[in-house]
Hints:
The structure holds two protein chains of two kinds.
Chain A: E1 5-8, H1 12-16, H2 19-31, E2 35-38, H3 47-51, H4 55-69, E3 75-77, H5 80-93, H6 98-108, E4 111-113, H7 114-121, E5 130-137, H8 141-146, H9 151-158, E6 161-165, H10 181-184, H11 186-203, E7 207-210, H12 213-225, E8 231-234, H13 235-240
Parallel strand pairs in A: 1-2, 1-3, 3-4, 5-6, 5-7, 7-8
Helix pairs in contact in A: 4-6, 5-6, 11-12
Chain B: H1 8-16, H2 18-39, H3 47-63, H4 65-78, E1 82-86, H5 89-103, E2 107-110, H6 114-118, H7 121-126, E3 131-134, H8 137-145, H9 161-172, H10 180-197, E4 200-203, E5 207-209, E6 214-219, H11 223-229, E7 233-239, E8 243-244, H12 250-262, E9 269-273, E10 287-293, H13 297-301, H14 317-321, H15 325-328, H16 339-350, H17 367-371, H18 378-396, H19 400-413, H20 416-429, E11 437-438, H21 448-454, E12 459-460, H22 467-473
Parallel strand pairs in B: 1-10, 2-3, 2-4, 4-7, 5-8, 7-10
Antiparallel strand pairs in B: 5-6, 6-9, 11-12
Helix pairs in contact in B: 2-12, 3-12, 16-18
Amino acid sequence: MRRGQVSIFVTCVVDQLFPEVGIAMTEVLERLGYRVDFRERQTCCGQPAFNSGYRDEARCLARHFLEVFRDAEFIVVPSGSCTSMIAHHFTELFPDDPSALAAAQHVANRTWEFSRFLLEVARVEDVGARFEGIVTYHDSCHALRELQVREGPRRLLANVRGLELREMDAAGECCGFGGTFAVKFADVSGAMARTKIDSILRTEAGTVVSVDSSCLMQLQGAMRRAGLGIRTMHLAEVLASR
Amino acid sequence: MSGAFIPLDSVRRTIADARLQTAIYTGTGRLIAKRQSTVGADTLPDYQELRDQAQRIKRHAVENLDHYLEQLESNVIAHGGHVAWCSSGAEVADFVLSLAKQRGARLIVKSKSMTTEEIDLNERLEHHQLEAVETDLGEYILQLAHERPYHIVAPALHKTRYDVADIFTERLGVEREVVIESQTRIARRVLREKFLAAGIGITGANFLVADSGAIVVVENEGNARLSSSAPAIHIAIAGIEKVIPRAQDLAVFLKLLGRSATGQPLTVYTSFLSGPRRPGEVDGPEEFHLVLLDNGRTRLLADARKRESLFCIRCGACLNHCPVYRKIGGHNYPWVYSGPIGAIITPQFHGVLKDPWLSYASSLCGACAEVCPVKIDIPRLLLDLRSEVVQARKWKGSTRVEQMAFRAFAWIASHPRVYARLGAFMAVVAPRGENGWLRRLPFFMRLGVLRKWMSQRDLPAPARQSFRQYWRGRPKEK
């Protein structure tokens, strides 16, 4: 089935550190019949600057993003956090610039977090994936609270053959990443990760799944440091498995 | 770094103190669970509508503060009370001191009030040889221990009963007692004498009702009711933002406050106090004074975006749900208001450069905003404050390194070819590690953000092939 074109924004974290997530997302979308468009001029949404208070720098990156994706029909993003930056915060950056504001609004309406795109645009709950193992789902804060992504990823996971989803008691609690928070307040951030990991351990899951690679980077890094062999996978990677 | 001046040693001590961590986690965890059991769809189906309504009422009240405060004043006076307007803590202290002097009062009983904590009232009064005794059990414990509140509603959240036993033994000279009920009895015995001997009772106020001239005080121990009725003089001290337009608005706020704070549909005591005892009445004080405190609130009011900070009803739910507060506790925050609400109001009262790290001490997880009964958008306010910190520092020329880093990053990331080449270069020169993860860095890389990241967790090495490189190498169009 041919479904038209989607443009993907792979985020700087996925591009440089976890390209397999972008590859998996591409595979899932292509399997569903989409033609995937990757615009090579894309870089970063500017969230690190915005969240650190550097509005001028964030504005510069937002303008670049808007220019790159100006005419995209669908922009699909493997991150709740970056989606929220584009869809919610870009408009806050241009209070005195009507044309940039209009462009931001236009792009905001076309930007989709990956799981929401699957459920609400592609309208699929079962992508035909197979993954053997016990999995627990980590709600990333921005997906959960800014995009109301909660049941969607769980529905998608529930339809993966061989997969057992086990809820952890603190699924909605922050992993402690928080962008520059992770280094500005490293001790607090590390302590938050360890609390989260305790909750993961109680599920006895072998894999932690999320829709944000940055949370998974925090959790994987802390679990490795603790000598734990638990894997982390982006939702796209699980859905691309067969 | 904008994180400068965080009390790092003290934060580390708090995190490493297993007993303290347990106390904080258990205390806040209990409040989270109790709140959850009283705001669920089965017990309070219109909870979200109530929050919307509460926010609307607060917004209206705050935006028409002048009108409602004047209405309040004339109604309080009509009930036979007095109103004092104070712009600072010093003025409040002067007011209380001169009243005490005129009436010959030496002993003051106080019920729990964050507003008086905010202005260090006890210290100011003690300085003039007036004894002010806290009568809320938690506050009393902390007064004996010479500590400030750890939490807005549960001031002694961090104290276990064993801690309390030590404090009572040391400060009151009683035999060591670890049973909570018995400890309460000890405090009650001491405090009962104080209530009977005090010339003045001071309370805070949760709500000031403009159209009826009543002040509303909610509590669980009955000490506020005693403080406001046993002594001959009752002084209520409240911030000007506590005013609400109508008595019927309480139907919204009283439903939300107890639930959000302690998971109680209603607190044990809810007192509606309107003026002193009238002829023919059997109880109540002979004199009633309402002190309306500004102390910087009008400055917050002037900022249209941030004035929603004044909606706060001091329920403490944002503290309980904050993963940062739950790690660092209440005493690492620079002011009496801790947690997310403290992080947004402290910089507004003291200036963003006083404790510039404060607005950064959040992962922006948004758990606070989700539970706030008046829907204060705390993460957005934190972001606004962060940008104010950056602006203010630009003028002062500080934090050059971070500023330059973000400027450089913005330049690179808006030049895609530079960005791609730099990424490819990093991938070549960076150490590979084990399965793409690094446990240690070569010594020349052990600095700045990398060192801080590695202090807690392993670091992913850049991928050998970035996504954009993969895309280039992909066979074109199937």
